[in-house]
Amino acid sequence: MIKKFLDLGLQPLANKYQKKPTKLSVSKGQLYNLNVSFNTKSKLVSISKRIPSEKMFNSKYPYRSSMSHTMRTSFKNLSKKIKKKFKPDLLLEIGSNDGALIKNFKKENVIGVEPCKNLAKITKKDGFLIYAQYWNFDLVKKIKKRFNSVDVIYSANTITHINDLNNVFKSINYLLSNEGILIIEDPSLLECLKKNSYDQFYNEHIYLFSALALKNLLSKFGFEIFDIENLSTHGGSLRYYIKRKTNKKQKISSRLNIQIKNEIKFGLHKFEAYKKFSVNVLKSKIKLLQILNKIKNDKKKILGYGATAKAVTVLNYCNINKDLIYNFTDTTPEKINKYMPGKNIKILRYNKNILKNYDYVFLGAWNFKKEIIKKEKKFVKKGLRFITHIPFPRILS
Ligand code: TYD
User: Fold this and answer.
1) What is the domain-level CATH number for residue 346?
2) Helices 211-219 & 165-175, crossing angle to 10 degrees?
3) Domain range holding 264?
4) Do 232 and 276 share a domain, yes or no?
């Protein structure tokens, strides 16, 4: 049974930054109702509304994996590990974005799949083989004809963005070699509930995986998880190492059982945990608005740092307008001088002195808290304060 537990109100498409302030409407399909549900049987958590992929992942997609030092380092370290542990002759990445991972491999050893043509162009220009198409069975039949099989399939923050998971895993099953390894990396549902990070939910994040739910899903395709890593990226992610059940070469790590035990201890297999979460989300909204309103009444100015998709959920759920957060700033070229969807707060180009015009910073990219505060320490010394809503809204001391 599918049971709804969270209503985040009317939301715009998160990564659709507006060229000019625009009043969005439901009738034009620019706003949708963001509800989140739990499937009591499969244990899968998903948003109810499905937006067609073409509307989200197209040649205007603004998200770039290489924009933070944290992510570049994470991909670099992972590529070293993959080379050492699995020695793949051929690795394929589903959702290769601007090449943050594949750039660490020799061109003849990697294939990228990236449907956003603006991003695919970046890595194609560097000489990588990129299929600028959606990951599905039709594409995979074409790849199989040319390469027969691949040794490692990797995908970070992409599979949860694809509606038809059966097609995703059927395609992986068709292309992965018998002893091949599948590595999937996505935000962790357990961390999301623990951190009260409801902003992990937006139109692109159709699913939020737990090890429990993924285990069930993989089993249908003859796959099993043999190891798990907890990562700090994207506010707490899980990296799943997966093999065919028939492949006895890889041993099952105790880390898998530890993760499953932790998820069950938290109650991820039961609806009650999700109900509790939804109460905490409402409390978070009330508290954040109190903080922002107090600062406004004190006539102080707040800058949003990181014009993230997550921040779009927060702004629209909490009804935060320009009177509360005056501007955002971001380093991503595609976002600069555009407006936060639904709330029309202008995104300014980042420069190292931008913070001097503000009294407070709201961490839109709270998942990069350490990196950002370190980068801006001279302003912290001068009295600039940071606000975060994770795990609960507060001004950082
Ligand atoms: P991310 O948290 O991955 O975003 P999303 O919620 O959209 O998936 O993205 C971080 C954003 O923050 C990205 O647009 C780049 C920006 N950013 C800065 O502008 N400066 C920084 O120092 C860092 C770390 C990120």
Assistant:
1) 3.40.50.720
2) 60
3) 44-268
4) no
From 268, 293, 319, give the residue that closes a domain: 268
pLDDT tens readout for residues 126-168? 999 999 999 999 999 999 999 999 999 999 999 999 999 999 9
Q: What is the pLDDT of residues 89-98, one digit of tens each?
A: 999 999 999 9
SS3 359: coil
Substitution site in 16, 56, 308 for ligand 1 pocket (most atoms within 8 Å of beta carbon): 308
Contact 194, 391 (CB under 8 A): yes
Same domain, 248 and 312: no
pTM over 0.90: yes
One domain, residues 247 and 334: no
Question: How is residue 393 written in tokens?
Answer: 């809204």
Ligand 1 centre distance from Cα of residue 277 (Å)? 25
Q: What is the DSSP letter of 252?
A: P
Q: How close is the Cα of 49 to the center of ligand 1, in Å?
A: 25
Rounded-to-integer distance, Cα 171 and Cα 38, Å: 26
H/E stretch holding 141 reads helix 137-147
Total domains in the chain come to: 2
